[in-house]
Automatic annotation (TrEMBL):
Gene3D superfamilies: NADH Oxidase. Keywords: Flavoprotein, FMN, NAD, NADP, Oxidoreductase. The keyword Flavoprotein applies. CDD domains: YdjA-like. PANTHER family: NAD(P)H NITROREDUCTASE YDJA-RELATED (PTHR43821). It comes from Dyadobacter fermentans (strain ATCC 700827 / DSM 18053 / CIP 107007 / KCTC 52180 / NS114). The lineage of its organism: Bacteria, Pseudomonadati, Bacteroidota, Cytophagia, Cytophagales. Its cofactor is FMN. GO terms for molecular function: oxidoreductase activity. This is Putative NAD(P)H nitroreductase. Binds 1 FMN per subunit.
Length: 192
């Protein structure tokens, strides 16, 4: 049992946000993505609503399609005199540098559970994904772009679902970095 605790402590304490500029061109096998998502399914959930819903984008065509949403949104919302080809291309760059991007969605059950509890359950599912990706040596991070309502429309989410962001994944060459916390846990605990 002690070895299990050491392993989970190591994975939790070495988990980092690894961003797409550090990703290398290497495909993540589908069975690994499925395992990452399977572990998400074991997150805690009030009343067993299991509100997490995921839409997986992998492969150049699917990633390009998602990147085009952000690129065209930039084009359509930027006055011609302010338009920059570099910014247009940058709008989809994170997606195109990723091996896989997963849209993180919540299926809300307002008659059964408050929305914040559903959001918390989805966050727990994402943490399970993050820890599993870390164990596989895969970099990842969760981003919540300012255009979540538009993104939900683009994704054609059914009524009752809400987009909570995008989860980027890729093998990477980022150096190991130590954890940074502003203060120790002792400063955040009150013993009652």
């Amino acid at each position: 049992m002690e070895q299990t605790v050491e392993v989970i402590n190591h994975i939790i304490r070495t988990r980092r946000s690894i961003f797409p500029p550090s990703y290398i061109e290497k495909e993540i096998p589908q069975e690994i993505i499925e395992n990452i998502l399977e572990n998400a399914n074991y997150a805690p959930t009030h009343k067993r609503t299991e509100p997490w819903r995921f839409m997986v984008f992998r492969g150049q065509d699917k990633l390009q399609h998602l990147a085009s949403f952000f690129m065209e949104r930039y084009r359509n919302n930027t006055p011609a005199e302010s338009f920059s080809q570099a910014r247009y291309e940058a709008a989809g760059e994170k997606i195109l540098k990723s091996a896989c991007v997963i849209a993180i969605n919540a299926e809300l059950h307002p008659n059964d559970v408050p929305e914040w509890e559903e959001t918390a359950a989805v966050a727990c599912a994402v943490q399970n994904m993050w820890l599993t990706a870390t164990a596989y040596g895969i970099g990842s991070y969760w981003s919540s772009p300012a255009v979540l309502k538009e993104l939900a429309e683009y994704l054609e989410l059914p009524e009752g679902q809400k987009c909570l962001g995008l989860y980027y994944l890729g093998y990477h060459n980022a150096p190991d970095t130590p954890a940074r916390r502003n203060s120790s846990i002792q400063e955040k605990i009150t013993w009652a």
